Amino acid sequence: MRSYPFDALKARGLHALIQIDMFVGNLRLTTYSEDVVVDGETWYAKGGVNITQIAFNSDGTPAAADIRIVPDGVFVHSSWGSRGYLEGLTITVKLFDVGNKAAGGYNMLPGTVIGSCSEDTDGNIIIGTQGRLALLKANLLEVHTITCKAVFGDDRCKIPLDVPQVTRNTHYITKTPLSNWVVTQQVFARVFQAGSFHDLVYECTTEGITHPTTQPTYPTTVGGTVTDGTAVFTARAARLVAATGQALDFYNIQLDADPSPEPTTLGKIIPQSGPLAAIKIPIRAYDSGTMIVTTFEPFAPSSFPPGTSFLVHPGCDKLWTTCSGTYGNGDNFRGVPYAPTSDDTMARA
After folding, report:
1. Among 16, 214, 226, 314, whose CB has the most other CB atoms within 10 angstroms?
2. pLDDT in tens, 118-132
3. Which residues does 155 contact at the CB level (< 8 Å), separation at least 6?
């Protein structure tokens, strides 16, 4: 029988260490209230991590567990749960004594993988830690469509829309390594300075780690570069840009200036204040002449008084011509654009 590396009866307190083997590095979190160094690695007190339930075998050994993680937009992102990005990845769950970290951790669930990954009604990510037989539940076939299966701006699409702010002492990478698996949060960052994001995002063009304490002044023109710690960033035009305006009626919002890029059908307009703050409202149409955004669904005009701040971005109809032509993103198109449709198949029968 395996034994703890510490005296469980005299432990000051038992907490968990959780490691998820991501495609571009390991994510290490702890249920403790502060970052800890155990087994030579740093485990971060991020994401409100908690083990919600544990299932045991007949001999009393743990067999599976459910883990709850609260997305923080930096270490853990909400899209991971709703889109099941973590399913099938190896996960390690260790116990350690907070009063005796030098003793190391005890692997509570050896040889486990993430059998399920979902999102609860509060937006928390729920991870089901199971044995490797859970991999047998994975789909072996995929239904191919002529339209893209990615969500515009997600980590499969890789168009940087909802980019997090740059953080200190953080490892950023370029788009070149592991291009099939890299996520936008590790490549792009936004920087708030002089009261604005300047409608720019910053792409990491030389891999490195941002300075632990000091943030340099980032360029405010497209193409400008800056060295932050050992990482180098290049300014790119953002697709999620700021705008101000007001509601005209239940469906129409008039902007004060024509944003660039312009919002298009299936894009989003996101109010930054009021009762609908941070709600992503789908765009039905945009008239560049009158600068009027028309939405699919009605809203209370009082929600958007004059001077309301918005974020807006264009949309995508998931067609190959849009992905490759408008956005130059054909390498990440998640569809089979030249596959015959059902009409083509029937015509040849």
Report:
1. 314
2. 877 777 888 888 776
3. 79, 85, 183, 184, 185
Question: Can you tell me which residue has the tokens 């998931």?
Answer: 318
- The phi and psi torsions of 278 (rounded to 5 degrees) equal 75, 0
In whole angstroms, give the CA distance from residue 95 to residue 72: 23
If one counts every other C-beta atom within 10 angstroms of the C-beta of residue 31, the result is 21
**293 contact partners, CB below 8 Å, separation of at least 6:** 245, 252, 253, 254, 255, 263, 269, 283, 285, 286, 312
Instruction: Give the other-Cβ count within 10 Å of 210's Cβ.
Output: 23
Q: What is the pLDDT of residues 285-343, one digit of tens each?
A: 999 999 999 999 999 999 999 999 999 999 999 999 999 999 988 888 988 887 666 65
Give me the DSSP letters along 266-289: T-EEEESSSTTTT--EEEEEEETT
Helix/strand/coil for 234: strand
Q: What amino acid is encoded at 22 in this protein?
A: M
Residue 207 identity: E
- Domains of the chain plus CATH, in order, are 2-136 (2.40.10), 170-237 (no CATH), 241-313 (2.40.10)
Residue with tokens 């853990």: 76
CA 24 to the chain's CA centroid: 14
* Token pair listed for 68: 């709850």
Using CA atoms, how far apart are residues 100 and 10, in angstroms rounded to an integer?
10
Asked whether residue 116 carries a pLDDT value surpassing 90, the answer given is: no
- Alpha carbons 188 and 172: distance in angstroms, whole number: 8
CA-based nearest residue to 178, from 76, 330, 25, 324 = 25
Q: Report the predicted TM-score, pTM, of the whole model to 2 decimal places.
A: 0.56
The separation between CA 5 and the C-alpha centre of its own chain, rounded to angstroms, equals 36
Widest CA span of the chain, in angstroms?
A: 76
